[in-house]
Specification:
Layout lengths: L2 E6 L4 H12 L4 E8 L3 H11 L3 E4 L5 H7 L5 E4 H12 L3 E4 L7 H9 L3 E4 L2 H18 L3 E3 L2 H9 L8 E8 L9 H5 L3 H4 L9 H9 L1 H13 L7 E5 L5 E7 L4 E5 L5 H9 L30 H12 L3 H17 L7 H12 L8 H20 L1
Parallel strand pairs: 1-2, 1-5, 2-3, 3-4, 5-6, 6-7, 8-9
Antiparallel strand pairs: 8-10, 10-11
Helix pairs in contact: 2-3, 4-5, 5-6, 6-11, 6-14, 11-13, 13-15, 14-15, 14-16, 15-16
Length: 383
Amino acid sequence: MRKRVLILGSTGSIGRAALEVADALRDEIEICGLAACTSWRELAEQARRCGAGAVALADPSHYEDCRSECPSGTDVLCGAEGLVELIARSEATFVLSAIVGAAGLPPTLEAIRRGVDVGLANKESLVLAGSIIMPLLREFGSRLIPVDSEHSAIFQALHSGRSTDVRRVVLTASGGPFRKWTAERIAQASLDDALRHPTWKMGAKITIDSATMANKALEVIEATHLFDLESDRIDVLVHPESIVHSMVEFNDGAIVAQLGTPDMRIPIQYAMTYPRRAAGPGERMDWRAARSLHFEPPDFERFPALRLGYEAARSGGSSGAVFNAANEAAVERFRAGEIRFGEIARLTERVLADHRVIEQPTLEQLMECDRWARDEVLVCIQR
């Protein structure tokens, strides 16, 4: 029986790569549903190409356009409610959650409550509500399989020992486009500069987060929830070749790493076919070619967003939600040309400093913290 896969965020870089994997493994994977935020033309084309029975468009303003372009018989839903309804309508047995930002949280929660396994590429869901999600997984028997290359690497390496045997984990980072830039030059970087990632091809928001290293900060917070680790047992190493995707160090001194080409189709396929490994479309490593691997510690002075991520992880409670929302709002303002690149981290830090941490927040409180942090960024800009 083929696995029925629903892709949330099908028009983004992760979603497109997932469709490539599904096409290569069509005997094992059936695409039963797709969702996108605004790209209605591409969503309709994807529905025609893969025969998805149901789709959802988060932006309701193009609902009629999308419905008219989709194949006859395809259910078309819209709005935030449509994303949640799609979980039930598609009858998926696996949900790939790849919608960027906090918008991916409600449908991810719905999938978990229905006992559906989730491949998580939307790190913001765990950063925002990891304290809610992890108990729900245990309650409803859903499995959460990380899709980010770093967390997928740790997930795989942890199979080499017991969780009680782990001394620490090491997340690797490419260093982004500004790895060798001075702090002064980084602060004045343009949008085009920030979007020139040296290794990965990703969407605009995550590419900018990689340039500030906020992406790695989010991954640190995410790892505390995924692997039940304190932040002081999570290290970051800059590794510009992006071959070693992450490592686990065990108590006996052994270090187990997962290596591979920087091709997101590999961790996407691993999540979609877990625990089986199939021959897929991912790029293979040519070990006959001479190569060198380099590692260096991150510079918290030039990349303060990473320091803020560690601070939010140590504070716990509602801090992750505020860090994520403030960073997201600041990135939006940078993309709109309203602030300079260096102000993204400064605004995030200011909002975090003004936040009174809620130690054991409810989901409603977390969503309120998310809204407050976004509004506070705008207030700070106006000041």
